[in-house]
Specification:
The protein is mostly helical. The protein contains 15 helices and no strands.
Length: 359
């Protein structure tokens, strides 16, 4: 059996699944859902319908893109890789529902788990028969879609329970709520869970939406700045206006690198809620609460809320204090606080050079 697995390049290890596959999935998510959301937001704000349409196409293919990326990381042969398109679509769609048929947030997590299993099973039968062109796709697709039907809704339900925690947090006083929401949504942004989907499913707007934006920015800008030595300008851009999920593989390798951005989010969250009263007041932009600085979608959402409030009379005008709060929470504080915390951990020996290097 060991020789057969080696022959088929099936390597059961934490690195292969927890680092290689996870890192590739983050890139697949960025190339579909996140790019789609950016284009959709720009199209809506600029009145360019064709951008909104393209964004919708890109976002709808997120499951397939993630699954193919995972298969590529697992070095799947062509027929397995192409078959994962169907597996990813099914896992993402079913993982985005709950056991009672509601809206879940576990699509990306379901894709990660199910695509790994389907890809490895497909690799095991690949080129083992004379009708490989039939057998390999059938095994990959049937195993993947079948597993999606069995467990993806449960994954969606489990992911949605995180949303219940966030909803409970929004009922607390602004200081405590700012910490809880900022930290939890920030963590969800970096994990293979759709923070944007969680925020959208909950309709996370108002002050809670502002705290969510703060947490996401702390993760994205924080990781981008504190890993600048390893990743230079490319890493600054890909993480700062892309996704901090790119660091997930490194977090698995050394979880301590996650401490600085989490601490930063615990500080910027209550500052956003208690001092600047940063809010996400455009109901149509609830998804932006979970996007942070990705394509500046979070900031565009906050601005759209300001415009809506002014139009409705709920807000007299957009003030300098509004802009100062948005800029400080989104960019300045994460860029300053996170490297300070990281430097302390470097002196303690908890973080070493190369720990945050992106492939």
């Amino acid at each position: 059996m060991k020789e057969f697995l080696e022959k088929k390049n099936v390597v059961i290890s934490a690195k292969r699944y927890g680092i290689d596959a996870l890192g590739a999935m983050a890139q697949g998510l960025f190339a579909s859902l996140l790019i789609g959301t950016i284009l959709n937001t720009l199209g809506t704000q600029l009145g360019l319908g064709f951008l909104t349409e393209i964004g919708g196409y890109a976002s709808s293919m997120s499951g397939a893109a993630m699954a193919v990326a995972i298969g590529f990381a697992l070095q799947a042969p062509p027929l397995v890789l192409f078959s994962l398109v169907t597996v990813g679509y099914a896992a993402n769609m079913l993982g985005s529902t709950t056991l009672d048929g509601g809206k879940g947030a576990g699509g990306p997590l379901a894709v990660l788990l199910i695509a790994i299993v389907a890809a490895e099973l497909g690799k095991l039968v690949s080129k083992e028969t004379k009708v490989d062109i039939l057998v390999t796709p059938l095994v990959t697709i049937i195993s993947g879609v079948g597993l999606s039907a069995l467990i993806a809704p449960a994954i969606g339900t489990a992911a949605s329970s995180l949303g219940a925690i966030i909803m409970w947090a929004t009922e607390l006083q602004p200081f405590l709520m700012g910490i809880v929401v900022s930290v939890v949504i920030g963590i969800a942004l970096t994990l293979p869970i759709s923070s944007a989907a969680i925020c959208a499913a909950l309709g996370l707007t108002g002050i809670a939406g502002g705290a969510a934006v703060a947490g996401c920015c702390a993760q994205m800008v924080g990781f981008a700045v504190m890993s600048f030595k390893e990743n230079k300008w490319g890493g600054l851009i890909s993480q700062g206006i892309g996704t901090s999920m790119l660091q997930m593989g490194n977090i698995v390798r050394n979880p301590r690198i996650w401490i600085p951005p989490i601490l930063t989010s615990a500080i910027t969250g209550p500052i956003a809620t208690c001092i600047f009263r940063l809010q996400m007041n455009d109901p149509a932009s609830a998804v932006a609460s979970g996007m942070g600085t990705c394509g500046f979608v979070g900031q565009i959402g906050v601005y759209a809320g300001w415009v809506a409030d002014v139009a409705s009379g709920a807000k007299a005008s957009i003030t300098a204090m509004d802009w100062a709060g948005l800029i400080l929470i989104s960019f300045v504080l994460p860029a300053v606080l996170t490297p300070i915390f990281a430097q302390v951990l470097r002196r303690m020996g908890w973080i070493k050079d190369g720990d945050m290097k992106l492939d």
